[in-house]
Design a protein that fits this description.
The complex is a heterodimer.
Chain A lengths: L1 E12 L2 E12 L3 E5 L6 H9 L1 H11 L5 E9 L2 E2 L5 H7 L1 E4 L11 H8 L5 H14 L1 H5 L10 H14 L4 E5 L7 H18 L2 E6 L11 E6 L2 E7 H6 L1 H8 L7
Parallel strand pairs in A: 3-8, 3-9, 6-7, 7-8
Antiparallel strand pairs in A: 1-2, 1-4, 4-5, 9-10
Helix pairs in contact in A: 4-7
Chain B lengths: L4 E7 L15 H24 L2 H25 L7 H18 L4 H20 L7 H22 L8 E2 L7 H24 L1 H11 L1 H6 L4 H27 L1 E2 L7 H13 L5 H16 L7 H15 L4 H10 E7 L8
Antiparallel strand pairs in B: 1-4, 2-3
The chains are: A alpha/beta, B mainly alpha.
């Protein structure tokens, strides 16, 4: 059953086209990767699915900035949510962990997590907190640390934790491995897999460099210049020489 | 099957070669470029010299307020959001009055000297606060004029509550109008040229990312000092000019109105554009005068207008007009927008 399906999505920033007739679908209990280089439209796609694009559009309209036009549809559990505001989408179970780990810098780790758990009941918050601390034990040791003073990797863990606290059914991760060392990347990928196993969340994840992700994703889409370039199962992606060369950093002849 | 359309915005095809080199092929295109530049200059000339005497006084004050707004906008572009343009105005006013009254210097010396001395004193006053950013800097600039006002009141220096009176007047209304208009245009074009120069880019960069400026090997503090000096010199000139225009200076030079007006003008006209604050001042100056017939109720009308304006057009009047003038909008079929079912 298709949980999320994006149909013919087209997004313009003024006259520049960021996403061009892109259709993707995510089935329940899958981890789906969206792989593409810079300027492929990954972040635009994520923001459109989570609804943040509507907010950006409103703000730009208000100050006479660039005009954003969105066409096509985003459907979630057979309901058209293209024009639904981001907060409503979170209530329906879509949570986005944005690019470059934005956290509430002035609050400490636990406060950060609790802010995001505001919609849940007390028991649920407790449960989610223990899930987050279980997944990222490092966060537990720095519960009272100000989030703004933590390292990039720790902030990324916290950012994912914040998204988890909203108890999503569909978790969107926008470049979670950006700017992290291979070691931390491996830890995060492991953690994402663990989250998947423990909660049965459906996960959509974008990345530029796909190698660390390949063990955990079920399917993947390769997008370039806002357009669908290639798609298929993990093995199909890994076996395609062009994809391998561009996004896995291995040459076909190497082996 | 439905066709989806989007509204496309494109620049008018006038700038054919580069941003700097225009390729003009008809009188129409020449007119398109020249009229918006000529119109305000001619308009202000007519406004300054042809209106009845009472309104000419209003116009002179508007010009001076326009300069205050330009100065505020310049400082805001440098990341120095001041809530106390009145401080600079008053320091300039008192410096020029003191030079004229105590040293007996003539008007053509006291105004330039007042401007210079005022700018130096203003910069010195603000110097300790230059390490502060954002709201902290604004608070300090708001407090200092209020404090200095009471200092003048209690110690009785510089005329105390009475102020300094009997200063030299300008020779005539024609000269007054000419000087104020010339000063306004000089400030406007001067600042615009400054901001566009390599030197001016540093000021704008101060607001954008002052750490990057520091990382380029430039001292933030030194450039902020220069920005304050330039900004306050403009306000000091305004103060010096108004002192001689009124032939007296008093504690009202520190009034909060003088700090608020430039901000209101910049917000109405569009911050960070220089032309915007000027436009804002030219609208708000006569407007607040015209509303005088309503007595003290005018503040309510004025505030309501200002509020409506800010809510409905937050980008400001000038950027809005410029956009409408320079761009064509049309409906186009959105590629990819044709749904398949």
């Amino acid at each position: 059953m298709s949980m999320l399906s994006v149909k013919n999505l087209t997004v313009f920033y003024e006259n520049a086209i960021a996403i061009n007739k892109l259709s993707i679908s995510v089935n329940k209990d899958e981890i789906v990767g969206v792989i593409g280089p810079n300027s492929a439209g990954k972040t635009t796609l994520m923001n459109t699915i989570s609804g943040l694009m509507l907010d950006t559009k409103l703000k730009e309209d208000r100050r006479g900035g660039i005009r954003i036009s969105i066409f096509g549809s985003v459907e979630y559990l057979d309901e058209n949510i293209t024009n639904l505001w981001p907060d409503k989408r979170v209530r329906k179970g879509i949570a986005l962990c944005r690019e470059r780990h934005p956290v509430f810098g002035e609050s400490d780790v636990e406060e950060n997590l609790k802010i995001s758990g505001y919609l849940s009941s007390k028991e649920q918050v407790k449960e989610s907190l223990s899930l987050v601390y279980d997944t990222f034990p490092k966060l537990l040791t720095m519960r009272r640390r100000k989030a703004g003073l933590m390292s990039g990797g720790e902030q990324q863990m916290l950012a994912i934790g914040i998204a988890l606290m909203a108890r999503p059914r569909l978790l969107l991760l926008d470049e979670p491995l950006l700017g992290l060392s291979p070691n931390i990347q491996a830890q995060l990928v492991e953690a994402i897999q663990k989250i998947k196993q423990q909660t049965n969340m459906t996960i959509l994840i974008t990345e530029q460099f796909a190698r660390p992700l390949i063990p955990i994703i079920d399917r993947g889409y390769v997008i370039e210049n806002g357009m669908f370039a290639f798609g298929g199962s993990k093995d199909e992606l890994y076996d395609n020489p062009d994809v391998r060369k561009a996004y896995f950093g291995v040459d076909y002849d190497e082996e | 099957m439905s066709t989806e359309r989007r509204r496309e915005r494109i620049d008018r095809p006038i700038k054919a070669v580069t941003d700097d080199i225009f390729c003009l092929s008809s009188m129409r295109e020449i007119a398109y470029l020249v009229i918006p530049r000529i119109l305000p200059i001619v308009g202000l000339l007519l406004l300054g010299f042809l209106v009845p005497t009472y309104w000419r006084k209003v116009i002179v004050i508007t010009f001076i307020m326009g300069m205050m707004a330009l100065s505020w906008d310049f400082m805001a572009s440098c990341g120095l959001t001041s809530l106390g343009q009145a401080l600079f105005f008053a320091i300039g006013a008192y410096s020029s009055a003191a030079v004229n009254h105590y040293l007996g210097l003539p008007i053509y010396l006291s105004i330039p000297l007042g401007t210079l001395i005022g700018a130096i004193i203003s910069t010195a006053c603000i110097y300790p606060a230059l390490g502060l950013r954002g709201i902290y800097f604004s608070m300090v600039t708001l407090i200092i004029p209020l404090m200095l006002m009471r200092v003048v009141e209690t110690t009785g220096i510089l005329g105390g509550t009475e102020g300094i009176t009997g200063l030299t007047h300008f020779p005539g209304m024609f000269i007054t109008t000419t000087i104020s208009m010339a000063a306004l245009w000089a400030t406007f074009f001067g600042l615009r040229r400054l901001i566009d120069s390599d030197y001016g880019h540093i000021f704008v960069a101060l607001k954008d990312n002052d750490r990057a400026v520091e990382a380029s090997g430039l001292s933030i503090r030194w450039f902020k000092v220069q920005a304050i000096f330039i900004g306050s010199a403009i306000c000091c000139f305004c103060g010096a000019f108004m002192t001689h225009y009124y032939m007296s200076v008093g504690m009202s030079a520190f009034a909060v109105d003088l700090s608020i007006f430039p901000i209101a003008a910049s917000v109405v006209g569009g911050m960070g554009t220089l032309a915007g604050p000027l436009l804002g001042a030219i609208i708000l100056g006569p407007l607040s005068e015209a509303l005088r017939t309503f007595g003290s109720f005018r503040v309510v009308i004025y505030a309501a207008l200002l509020g409506t304006f800010i809510v409905t057009l937050p980008e400001g009047l000038f950027p809005y007009l410029a956009r409408k003038y320079q761009q064509i909008e049309r409906w186009v079929e959105a590629p990819g927008g044709i749904s398949e079912d």
